[in-house]
Structures are given as structure tokens and as C-alpha cells.
Design brief:
Layout lengths: L3 E2 L5 E8 L12 E7 L5 E2 L10 E10 L9 E5 L4 E3 H6 L10 E10 L11 E4 L1
Antiparallel strand pairs: 1-4, 2-3, 3-7, 5-6, 5-8, 8-9
Length: about 130
């Protein structure tokens, strides 16, 4: 069984966040503008080439505080997309009620057999 060797360039670009709270004790939804971008892995750990069709997608791990990759919460991005809009992540059911704070993000790649690569470097952002 081959393991994916992932060389990710993981970048958090153009992030802005806005939230407001009304007088009724409830807060307005968070609005986020930004994209997480990473490079496509090209080989397995044994050096053999990784064809784009070999990849199922990526898990984008997120955590409030230090990264919990690869055991924490994640947002799946299917192949061939190698970026994700932060607003799409925030609008997903699992992330819609996350508290404000500083989040760390890391990415792993998955092949068609659900073999997962090591975690990428992390980036963080405060919402």
C-alpha cells in the first residue's frame, strides 16, 4: 500500500471577517471573505508519481487554538479542487455555529483508498 507524499504550500489569502450582534442577544452570522489554497501533491512517499485521478480530495482540518490535525474536526474538499472558500466552510452545517476566536488550519490529501497524507503546515486566522 502506497502512502501519499504531500508537499503542500498552504496559504490563507485575503481574509476579512465581520460579525455583528443585535440588541436581542443573538448575533448575526459571520461573513468571511478569503480562500485557503494549497498545491496539488505529485508523488507517493516511495517516489512514484501520483496521478490526479489517484486523489479523492483533501481534508481541511480546523481547530480553535493549536492544530489537531489529523485527529480533529475537518471539512472535506473533493478532488480536483485544491482550494476552498472560507465562506463555504462557515456556511456548512458543521461549522455554522463555531465560536469566534483564533483558528488553525491544516490540510491532508486522500487517495481513492482513503489513505491520508501527513498534515501540511498550519495557518491561523482570528474570526
Amino acid at each position: 500500500m502506497k502512502i501519499i507524499f504531500i508537499l503542500l504550500s498552504f496559504v490563507l489569502v485575503a481574509v476579512t471577517a465581520a460579525c455583528s450582534s443585535g440588541g436581542g442577544g443573538g448575533g448575526a452570522p459571520i461573513t468571511v471573505s478569503g480562500t485557503l489554497v494549497w498545491d496539488l501533491p505529485t508523488q507517493y512517499s516511495d517516489g512514484s508519481p501520483l496521478a490526479p485521478g489517484d486523489l479523492k480530495g483533501c481534508n481541511v482540518y480546523y481547530s480553535l487554538g493549536p492544530s489537531t490535525c489529523p485527529t480533529g474536526s475537518y471539512y472535506f474538499v473533493s478532488s480536483p479542487s485544491w482550494s476552498v472558500s472560507l465562506q463555504d466552510m462557515i456556511n456548512s452545517p458543521n461549522l455554522a455555529s463555531l465560536p469566534s476566536g483564533t483558528y488553525e488550519f491544516a490540510v491532508t490529501a486522500l487517495d481513492q483508498n482513503d489513505m491520508e497524507s501527513a498534515c501540511s503546515n498550519t495557518v491561523s486566522h482570528t474570526f
